[in-house]
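Appendix C: a fully annotated inverse folding record. The material below is reproduced so that readers can follow the format used throughout the book. The structure is listed first as tokens, followed by the designed sequence.
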């Protein structure tokens, strides 16, 4: 599984334009339920992207976006402040501040010195993309290698469920049948008759 460091954008750099009906005060009140830490990057990413797409602000996450020029020449050839640039900078700063407020204190040190939304977003994607892939591989291998051994039935079921929950936290949802298969694979031969009855049944079993 790969994680792009860029949001979905066209290949060519885009000149940014403002969204007149967007109120930057949104960021002072809008909170997401997941604060980014070492264990929930994909859940955090999903919620953040949904909020950003709602207000069509994806361009601020793309380092290829070209901001408007900071000044414009007036009729007399004098440089004047460009209101489009001021608006762009205001929106980008508000979004950057909001992104920083959505990460845990353990993540913030990795983002020191970054003051644009694109810098923050791409740094987080780079930091957690490879980590998440490694976690997915570890949890999936662990799920299918569990064995009951001396564990009670309750303990082995809880252990397997724990790995399913860990995979779900990485946005890798385990199907009901894969969950049941992992349980069957972990049981010793004396449970073969029970497994045969369950697999032959026309009534679907749930966990």
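Designed amino acids, in order:
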């Amino acid at each position: 599984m790969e994680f792009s460091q860029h949001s979905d954008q066209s290949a060519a750099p885009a000149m940014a334009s403002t969204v007149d009906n967007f109120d930057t005060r949104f960021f002072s009140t809008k909170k997401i339920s997941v604060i980014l830490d070492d264990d929930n990057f994909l859940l955090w990413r999903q919620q953040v992207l949904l909020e950003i797409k709602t207000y069509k602000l994806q361009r601020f996450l793309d380092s290829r976006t070209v901001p408007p020029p900071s000044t414009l020449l007036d009729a007399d050839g004098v440089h004047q402040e460009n209101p489009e640039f001021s608006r762009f900078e205001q929106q980008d700063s508000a979004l950057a501040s909001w992104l920083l407020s959505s990460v845990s204190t353990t993540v913030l040190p990795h983002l020191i010195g970054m003051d644009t939304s694109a810098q923050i977003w791409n740094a987080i994607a780079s930091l957690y993309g490879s980590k998440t892939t490694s976690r997915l591989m570890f949890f999936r291998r662990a799920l299918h290698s569990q064995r009951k051994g001396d564990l009670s039935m309750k303990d082995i079921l809880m252990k397997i469920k724990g790995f399913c929950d860990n995979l779900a936290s990485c946005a890798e949802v385990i199907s009901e049948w894969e969950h049941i298969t992992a349980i069957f694979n972990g049981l010793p031969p004396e449970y073969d008759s029970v497994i045969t009855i369950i697999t032959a049944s026309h009534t679907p079993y749930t966990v």
